[in-house]
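Notes to self after the Tuesday call (sharing in case useful).
The group wants a holo model before anyone commits to mutagenesis around the pocket. I volunteered. Ligand is nicotinamide-adenine-dinucleotide. Logging inputs and output together so the record is complete.
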Amino acid sequence: MNAMTAFWTEADYDDHELVQLVRDPKSGLTAIIAIHSTHLGPGAGGTRFWHYPDPKAAMRDALRLSRGMSYKNAMAGLPMGGGKAVILADEDRTKSPEMLAAFGDAVEALGGKYVTAEDVGISEADMVAVSQRTSYVSGLPVEGEDSAGGDPGPFTAMGIYHGIKAAVAHKLGKDSVKGVHVAVQGTGSVGGGVARLLAKDGAKLTLSDIHEDRAEALATELGGKAVAPDAIMSTACDVFSPNALGAILDDEGIARLDCAIVAGGANNQFARAKHGAMLAERDILYAPDYVINAGGIISVAQEYLDRQQGASGGINEVRKRIAQIPERLVQIWQESERSGISADVVADRMAQKLIGR
Ligand code: NAD
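Result:
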């Protein structure tokens, strides 16, 4: 695997503390576990099961995503560092119990330096299988309403809702979202949750999803309007809330925006690094994605901490941390205004400081 020989010369290598190749010929497992930082606690981040065009792309993903988790966990105030694993799937995406067991053994061998959970291609059932071999796992089924964990979507939506309210107060000087027009891209677990919470407060909603019937049904339920997927970014509104795909803020996407605020849960919203500054030049307030969408990881991390400590009732801690998302955003916006540096870069710098870099 040539990509492994000099991964530390890759542009995405950022003094990661550990990058491990895991091979188990018997089960066919090839995985990379990358731990970016354990400065604040164990490197936490999900496992992605994906068919990559080549091993280099898998390495890039592991390096980039694990650094992202360091930043996200630090900015969420969690006692967790950043890590990520990728399992290199074959073209048929063959996954077996033996493969998951071998992966669990590899996580266990790291002795708690890395804590895993679900990511793209890995289900809750897969995590249950991994948990047969290691306790350094989160994202397992939970029981009871006051337990942290379970589906992270509603917690992510809650954080975004608080973040949108903070953005509306900061940019528009309004202490409520009543009558504020929010255009929501993607009405799945996160976008649908955000729309429901905003509707309760009387926000005006325009919704869109590539599954147009989904957006239309939700618009009917909440009293909003549904538009075609290619119309949502140019909708004249106060807040554009991307909750579908990443990389939507590119040259063309930013030019089309007709809003004062971008605040939504989609990961990696900027197509390239330069697009953060481009958005700021248009005087659009930006809520950095990994700060505003941290509600899910806050819940998943608390589930892990509760299980490790044999405790429960962590839901209050989750709510407390989610309620702090707006404070962090305001800090970022104030520093951005003071320094003239775009909000995404300010957030990265704050995160780097928190992890001692
Ligand atoms: P989901 O699959 O439940 O919903 C995504 C929705 O977006 C789907 O309804 C899909 O049809 C729609 N969609 C896809 N492409 C679209 C397009 N071009 N235009 C309009 N709609 C489109 O996923 P989710 O869990 O709601 O996650 C949404 C985003 O939030 C993703 O980027 C995800 O990485 C991010 N995120 C999710 C969580 C979480 O807790 N679920 C946490 C952090 C970040």
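Two things stood out.
Residues 152-153, 156, 185-191, 208-211, 214, 229, 243-246, 265-267, 293, 296 surround nicotinamide-adenine-dinucleotide (CB under 6 Å).
The domain at 153-292+326-354 is CATH 3.40.50.720 (Rossmann fold).
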